[in-house]
Write a structure and sequence with these properties.
Pathway: Carbohydrate degradation; L-arabinose degradation via L-ribulose; D-xylulose 5-phosphate from L-arabinose (bacterial route): step 2/3. The protein is an alpha/beta fold and about 550 residues long. Helix content is about 40%, strand content about 20%. A hairpin with a 5-residue loop joins strand 2 and strand 3. The longest helix is centred in the C-terminal third of the chain and has 25 residues.
Length: about 550
């Protein structure tokens, strides 16, 4: 058993930065943390890592060396803040955004680090929000249904453009030279563990949810060949690898990684995992019926169930995908905090910014304060939360945002509140899909940065009609990773046991207000009418507008 003062480190890789957290094994006390922002952030307009070449619409790339810099910077800084010595650390674990893909050589070198490929966009990391593979995803879905592939129903009937197969097929069809040079198509969650240990293995979470790995196998070569004859060997040649279970020891910390981090060589490194999934034990919320919503730039909804069910539009059902012995379900919304940030950056007049500065508030705080004084429905608006497409339940990234009901009297806080409400309506749509499919949701547990907005949390309770519990930690994914590091180090038998000691939540922190619930039921009916009209084929104008935009942008880039 580890010493009484032993600690573990969790490293949470987000969209724009990585966070390291030092946690005491015995009780989950968070002793110190540090954040390192990625040097290249997200490349979604130009290839800033090379010469600033313009990128097509819907692209989102990153530089893998930025992830290693987190280990070199944030881990030592977190240790210093915690006031612990390296010898107290017995394990480290990481979590990552998913599906984030790295094309590598056989040795694990990202292709963008080879000089001959530095100017090729497909040689870089495809971030989770890279949505330019929608055409490939559409073909995968159409073929799967036409052939009656059994695995498609484990994903609610749809494979997302965010996932491994669609993105891999896009590489093949748009840059076959990069595809040929790629020996491994690696989840970033596994690539960073590879850098820590010197050994490559896949994690069961992303293999199941993002890699169509069900019942011990992937889609077969015949299916892949029907998509594209050159794609037939994708699984055997690029993707397939040994799979590690969650909480398992992936290996010992390598000498190189020990030098980067200042940690002892050989300590336990846990199998990679996903930011949302590690958060469930951090909130001590792994029982069936407890849906954990990790709310940040996007929202991921995860929950366990004691049986397998087919839930329309979910992101997957994987046995042991969250914790051992239960079916782990995942759904999500591609844009939440990102939508609020877009609105503040692009749709707010200078007078609001000036007032916020004068009062010492952020623009978000000021708009929330103004919006909170309104009765439900007073702004006269309904919005669709599809500014970054729809991950669940429609699984269609060709969809786009909509605000209906604007007049000359509409104020900035009106639009802001309508967007807040739209994301809660989106979560209610997901919850209802689970309930209708025999996987009841009885408690909504919120983690992530957005839980700081108490008005938003009450709004979610009123719109969903559910009590909302909140995670105790302000660093849920990093704590969740630390919990898995504790399991990998042998301190606890599994993540559930570790979470019961090291994690926690505030039960029923927000409860539904009956009058608001009734008022929101009326607005939600309007949201669902718009949701089904624009999302289920009533009017495909959103798809047509995106096609027009792509043509115009292509002409602009080619000029």
């Amino acid at each position: 058993m580890p010493a009484a003062d032993a600690v573990v480190i969790g490293v949470d890789y987000g969209t724009l930065s990585g966070r390291a957290l030092v946690v005491r094994l015995s009780d989950g006390a968070e002793l110190g943390s540090a954040v390192h922002e990625y040097g290249h952030a997200v490349m979604d307009a130009t290839l800033t890592a090379h010469r600033g070449e313009p990128l097509p619409p819907e692209w989102a790339l990153q530089v893998p060396a930025d992830y290693v810099d987190v280990l070199k910077s944030a881990v030592p800084a977190a240790l210093r803040e915690a006031g612990v010595v390296a010898e107290q650390v017995v394990g480290i674990a990481t979590d990552f955004t998913a599906c984030t893909m790295v094309p590598t050589t056989r040795q694990g070198t990202p292709l963008n680090e080879l000089p001959e490929y530095a100017d090729r966009p497909h040689a870089y990391v495809k971030l989770w929000r890279h949505h330019a593979a929608q055409a490939q995803a559409d073909r995968i879905n159409e073929l799967a249904h036409s052939r009656g592939e059994s695995w498609i129903n484990r994903y609610g009937g749809f494979i997302s453009s965010e996932w491994e197969f669609a993105k891999g097929l896009q590489v093949l069809e748009e840059d076959p030279e990069i595809y040929a040079a790629m020996d491994h198509w690696v989840e970033a969650a596994d690539w960073i563990v590879w850098q820590l240990t010197g050994e490559y293995l896949r994690n069961a979470c992303t293999a199941g949810y993002k890699g169509i790995y069900q019942d011990g196998s992937y889609p077969d070569a015949e299916f892949l060949s029907a998509l594209n004859p050159e794609f037939s060997g994708f699984v055997t040649e690029k993707l397939e690898h040994r799979i590690g279970q969650l909480g398992e020891r992936a290996g010992g910390l390598s000498a190189a990684a020990a030098e980067w981090t200042g940690l002892p060589e050989g300590i336990a490194v846990a199998v990679g995992n996903v930011d949302a999934h590690v958060t469930a034990p951090a909130a001590d919320a792994v029982a069936p019926g407890q849906m954990v919503a990790i709310m940040g730039t996007s929202t991921c909804h995860v929950m366990n169930g004691d049986h397998l069910a087919e839930v329309p539009g979910m992101c997957g059902a994987v046995y042991g995908g969250i914790t051992d012995g239960l079916w782990g379900y995942e759904a999500g919304q591609s844009g939440v905090g990102d939508i609020f940030a877009w609105y503040v950056a692009n749709q707010v007049p200078g007078s609001i910014s000036e007032e916020a500065e004068t009062r010492g508030l952020s623009v978000h705080e000021l708009l929330t304060e103004k919006a909170a004084t309104q009765p439900v429905g007073a702004h006269g608006l309904i919005a669709l939360d599809w500014h970054s497409g729809n991950r669940s339940v429609l699984v269609d990234h060709e969809l786009s945002g909509l605000v209906l009901g604007a007049t000359l009297a509409t104020k900035p806080e009106d639009g802001y509140r309508a967007l807040l409400e739209s994301t809660a309506f989106g979560t209610r749509t997901i919850i209802e899909a689970f309930n209708d499919s025999g996987v009841p949701v009885t408690e909504l547990v919120v983690a992530g940065g957005l839980l700081r907005n108490s008005f938003l949390m009450q709004l979610y309770a009123d719109i969903t009609g559910l009590p909302i519990s909140t995670i105790v930690s302000t660093q849920g994914p990093a704590l969740g990773s630390a919990i898995h590091a504790a399991v990998a180090a042998g301190a606890y038998p599994d993540a559930s046991a570790a979470g019961a000691v090291m994690g926690g939540r505030r039960r029923n922190a927000y409860t539904p207000q009956p009058d608001a619930v009734t008022a929101y039921d009326e607005l939600y009916a309007e949201y669902r009418a718009l949701h089904d009209h624009f999302g289920r084929g009533g009017n495909d104008v959103m798809r047509r507008l995106k096609a027009i935009r792509r043509r115009a942008r292509h002409q602009e880039v080619s000029a």
